[in-house]
Amino acid sequence: MYTPDLYKNENEEEIKAFLKENSFGILINQTNGKLCATHIPIELELNAEGKEILQGHISKLNPQAEGFRENDHVLAVFTGPHSYISSSWYDHENVPTWNYIAVHVYGRIKIVDYETSVEQLKKLVDKYEVNSKNPVRVENLSEKTMREARGIFGFEIEIEEIQATKKLSQNRDDHNYKNIISELEKTENPQSIAVAKEMSKCRK
User: Fold this and answer.
1) Stretch 14-26: mean pLDDT, rounded?
2) Residue 107 to residues 80, 138, 202, Cα–Cα distance (Å)
3) Long-range residue pairs from 138-144, CB within 8 A, at least 24 positions apart, any chain
4) 185: closest CA among 175, 174, 196?
5) What span, in angstroms and rounded, lies between the C-alpha atoms of 157 and 53?
6) Whole-angstrom distance between the N-terminal and C-terminal Cα of the chain?
7) Is the overall model pTM greater than 0.90, yes or no?
8) Which residues does 148 contact at the CB level (< 8 Å), separation at least 6?
9) 127-138: pLDDT as tens digits
C-alpha cells in the first residue's frame, strides 16, 4: 500500500485496536491466475503459541479457496472511517482530497480442521452477540443447524507484514486542521463525523 511517511501509522497497539474494531475485511488472493476477493469478518486472535494471527472462514463453494493450495500468500484489507475533504474548507487555494484510515495485512493462509473452525465460530458469535437482548450461542444450536458448519473452511493467516495508513490532514496547520474538523461535523454524515472524531484525537 502506498503510504507517504507523514501518514504511516506504526503504533502497534493502535493498529491492533483498529483491527479489532474494523474486522469486516476483504480477503484477497490469486486463484487460477485471477485475483479473487471475499468480504468477510477476519478476526485478530492469538494462536496456541501466543502469536498473533488472523482467522476467519469462507464457504467451501467459494472458488477462492482453490487458490490457497496453489499459493498460500494472501492479503487482508481493513478500512475505517473515510470522508471527502473539500478545499473550500482551507484559507488558501488547494486541491480537494480524501481522509481515511486503512490497514493491509500480508501473510500465509492455511485451512484448519472442523473442530477448530467451530471454535472460531464460537468466538465470532460471542463477540457480536455480547450486546444482544437474546444472545445466540453456537453451543446451543441444534445438530441440524450445526450441519451447515460443514459447508465452511476455517482458516488462519500467519501475519508476515502489516502496513497501516492514517491520512487525517496531518499536513495542515492548526487553523485549517480545526476548520476541517468543524466542517466534517456539520455534514451529519456518520463517516465524516467519525473522521472528525479521529482527527480530534490526533491533535488537541
Assistant:
1) 97
2) 21, 29, 29
3) none
4) 196
5) 6
6) 28
7) yes
8) none
9) 999 999 999 999
